[in-house]
Amino acid sequence: MKTLAISTLTICGIDELPGNSSREVTHVLSVLDPDRAELDAFGAYGAHHRVTLRFHDIIEPLPGQIMPAAEHVGEILRFGEGRRETATARTAGHLLVHCHMGISRSTAAMLALMAQADPTESEDALFARLREIRPQAWPNSVMVGFADRQLGRQGRLTEALGRHYAHQIEVQPKFRVWMNDLGRKRELEMAL
């Protein structure tokens, strides 16, 4: 993401946060469940800018849970715009985006930031870059849909997401079982 002046990109889950504390992280985007306690892991990090968003990793409404919303993706994109605006003040940076497992919400957020930073890069190339950063990426389809619309990608991000899901099922068949068990059949159907 050269346009953000961020030289290192990391996606991880909560359990991996302590292992990243010595990696000179400059920016953190945390995506947490609304009822999750504040994380202690960041006490071991150096000075960094952090934004926290709180919503559940779901793709269909569930009682007592907060769906990803257009406003959440808007906040992610404002976070990205802020990195672009402060780019001249730094020569490098390390962006860490995390959610609970580092598989769905965080990968959707990173994809949105990458698509925002590189508006002419093809959607399939963006997903290939995402897999390089986080091989187990399974971006939340609701978030990707909002990013698609807000970035004016005219459905191309969502179409490429289906191809990404197909790729992930082929190289990591366990995703078919996981997503089925999590009630995310619609995302599996996108892979067909």
Structure explained in plain terms:
The chain is of the alpha/beta class and 192 residues long. The protein has one domain: Alpha-Beta Complex (Protein-Tyrosine Phosphatase, Chain A), CATH 3.90.190.10. It contains seven helices and four strands, in the order βββαβαααααα. The protein has helices at residues 70-85, 105-117, 123-133, 141-150, 156-171, 174-181, 185-190; strands at residues 8-13, 27-32, 49-54, 94-99. Helix 2 packs across helix 3 (123-133), helix 2 packs parallel to helix 4 (141-150) and helix 3 (123-133) crosses helix 5. The two termini are 30 Å apart.
**Count of DSSP H/I helices:** 7
Distance between the termini: 30 Å
Taken together, the total number of domains comes to: 1
Give me the CATH architecture, please.
Answer: Alpha-Beta Complex
Question: Regions with pLDDT < 50 over 5+ consecutive residues?
Answer: none
Structural class: alpha/beta
CATH class descriptor name: Alpha Beta
How much of the polypeptide forms β-strand, as a percent range?
5-15%
Mean pLDDT: 93
